Amino acid sequence: MELHDAGLRRVFVLAFCVAGIWSAYIYQGVLQETLSTKRFGPDGKRFEHLAFLNLAQNVVCLVWSYIMIKLWSSSSSGGAPWWTYWSAGITNTIGPAMGIEALKYISYPAQVLAKSSKMIPVMLMGTLVYGIRYTLPEYICTFLVAGGVSTFALMKTSSKTISKLAHPNAPLGYGLCFLNLAFDGFTNATQDSITARYPKTSAWDIMLGMNLWGTIYNMIYMFGWPHGSGFEAVQFCRQHPEAAWDIFLYCLCGAVGQNFIFLTISRFGSLANTTITTTRKFVSIVVSSLLSGNPLSGKQWGCVLMVFSGLSYQIYLKWRKLQRLQKKRKA
């Protein structure tokens, strides 16, 4: 009976995590698309300063992580010092800024697909720089994702979707997305190095350090000179309170989503988190197509399915590898 109750509690917690990650990040995606395409106020102006979203997100997550550390952290020593995040903070500032700026040039579904192909630069760098040999199934995963993204990019976008973009330019948009992935790869590698050197570093410590440096760099970039774009963004929010409210909700969704990601990883592991976030991206594309008026053709939906088939196969391969490791440990 106790085992049955424990199993039910575990299922309930997993369902709670899935609902939290999906609702936070799908709604954040809707807000991101709204801020990049909507015309605000009677003058019909667009919010052009999308990099300001990163600064606002950094500030909210910085405050959020500080509160979480004070509430839940059991020890105050042993974690990585705040200054160790300075280099990862640079790439974590530039990368997401490029990803958000891409929405001026390509649609939200296209951006989500492009950013789902993180394995491509990882495998290229691994093969060319480090001489790593990958298995045939891993190459199949990469082929499905790369083929789906590239075919989707070459297909003609509907005129309705193009009309919503500030400056339609597919090559520039996809280029920014792949640069975002490259910078993310460096950020992730640096974070892994920090946690290896300081094993007692918690997820909240990382969140605090990364967002502290992100706030510093973005403040310098946006407010470091008299005519910085940050002043224009603040002025726009004063003139259009609706945009300011959307920005606040966007940041809040990011902070809440981080909570659920940390909870999922701590209770169920990174593989479960990868599965939830991957399916969330697919649902985000569906929601964008239905609610935001970004119609996809039958061939484009085929490309979407091709990409997520590759991602699903990758998750399955990770699960099999995890199962084999667990059997070895038992033996």
Automatic annotation (TrEMBL):
It is a multi-pass membrane protein. GO terms for cellular component: endoplasmic reticulum membrane. It is found in: Endoplasmic reticulum membrane. Pfam families: UAA. The chain crosses the membrane at residues 12-30, 50-69, 136-155, 247-265. GO terms for molecular function: antiporter activity. Keywords: Antiport, Endoplasmic reticulum, Membrane, Transmembrane, Transmembrane helix, Transport. It comes from the Eukaryota. Belongs to the nucleotide-sugar transporter family. UDP-galactose:UMP antiporter (TC 2.A.7.11) subfamily. This is UDP-galactose transporter 3 isoform 1. It comes from Theobroma cacao (Cacao).
